[in-house]
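ARCHIVE CARD
CATEGORY: sequence design from structure
SOURCE FIELD: tokenized fold
FIELD CONTENT:
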């Protein structure tokens, strides 16, 4: 097995450093005869048999993806440092994000943050207005019909309170402060029982619902927070929103932004959007939703690698994350960050591009696919 590993390492090394020796060598020799060899090597390195062999060495497919991606991405686009804002205690409620509270007028937000980087439909029938500086200080805001903030989300260190809750607070401190999390929530005439989850708690505080997300890989500390006004939360009468094209587009954009915000927060470069990868991701989500299955391999037995190649995508490395059933991209992303293999893909420094795809089944249940690439 060791010999096999060394052989694969030699082949992969020669193949991945080709861009560095190809041009100078081609000035003196005709190397066009290597083109068929390139295609065979790429096919070989991404074949199921090789992946299985590497998998048996490295224990998980996620590590196999990393081995196939041993050449790093272009780091010319460095992550600039952006100062954190000075956070102050909220004046009118117990919690604020970026010194903005529920009820803050949109004009005041615009004066402070400028125009949003992106506006996209969310599951509450309103829009998430995303604000960030190269994905630093990332947050999303929603406004009501009176142009006042009725929802806020962040997965950055922007949480302030008058009760000692902040980014990085321990779950035990949060529960000591707010008491026992809610076990059920009313939606219209229905009462929904909330499943026990180690990943987040829901509290009703000062006329709002506070979703507190925890990082299970960092000792169950606060990693994100979503504040929703009581009126907006109760306006959403079902667990799932209707799955139309506009909401699909919104979920896809939000999943992309959330992933990049998490990468930048962890000192990595943001990924570029890639249309072919997004098409491939969406097609797989549609296939799973329409045919009622949930797997990286489709019903024809094709792997993510196969589907990317079928869509004409060329890559030096690739990975895929899947999620299913979460009520929004926020919950899907936070769940992926608490799963080691998925988290490793999100925080893999070698990737350069990302495409996201979402689809809904007949019950409006969403299926999420992320396609990561090193081109």
């Amino acid at each position: 097995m060791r010999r096999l590993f060394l052989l694969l390492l030699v082949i992969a090394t020669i193949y991945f450093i080709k861009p560095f020796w190809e041009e100078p060598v081609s000035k003196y020799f005709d190397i066009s005869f290597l083109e068929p060899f390139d295609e065979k090597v790429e096919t070989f390195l991404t074949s199921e048999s090789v992946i299985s062999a590497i998998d048996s060495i490295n224990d998980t497919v996620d590590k196999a993806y990393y081995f196939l991606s041993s050449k790093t991405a272009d780091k010319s686009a460095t992550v600039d440092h952006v100062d954190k804002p000075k956070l102050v205690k909220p004046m009118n409620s117990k919690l604020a994000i970026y010194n903005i509270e529920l009820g803050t007028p949109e004009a005041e937000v615009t004066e402070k943050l400028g125009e949003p980087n992106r506006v996209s439909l969310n599951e509450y029938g309103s829009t998430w207005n995303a604000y960030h500086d190269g994905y630093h200080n990332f947050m999303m805001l929603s406004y009501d019909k009176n142009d006042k903030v009725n929802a806020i989300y962040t997965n950055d260190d922007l949480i302030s309170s008058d009760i000692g809750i902040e980014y990085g607070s321990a779950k035990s401190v949060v529960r000591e402060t707010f008491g026992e999390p809610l076990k059920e929530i009313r939606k219209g005439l229905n009462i929904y029982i909330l499943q026990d989850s180690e990943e987040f708690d829901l509290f009703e505080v000062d006329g709002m619902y506070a979703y507190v997300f925890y990082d299970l890989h960092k000792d169950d500390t606060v990693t994100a927070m979503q504040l929703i006004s009581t009126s907006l939360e109760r306006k959403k009468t079902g667990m799932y929103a209707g799955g139309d094209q506009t909401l699909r587009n919104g979920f896809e954009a939000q999943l992309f932004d959330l992933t990049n915000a998490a990468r930048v927060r962890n000192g990595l470069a943001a990924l570029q959007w890639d249309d072919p990868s997004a098409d491939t991701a969406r097609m797989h989500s549609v296939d799973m939703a329409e045919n009622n299955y949930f797997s990286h391999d489709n019903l024809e037995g094709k792997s993510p690698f196969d589907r990317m190649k079928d869509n004409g995508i060329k890559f030096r490395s690739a990975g895929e994350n899947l999620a299913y059933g979460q009520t929004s991209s926020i919950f899907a992303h936070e769940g992926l960050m608490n799963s080691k293999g998925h988290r490793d893909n999100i925080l893999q420094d070698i990737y350069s591009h990302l495409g996201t795809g979402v689809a809904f089944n007949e019950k409006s249940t969403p299926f999420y696919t992320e396609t990561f690439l090193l081109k």
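CARD ANNOTATION: Confidence is low (pLDDT under 50) at residues 25-78. Residues 85 and 98 are 7 Å apart (CA to CA).
SHELF: design records, drawer C
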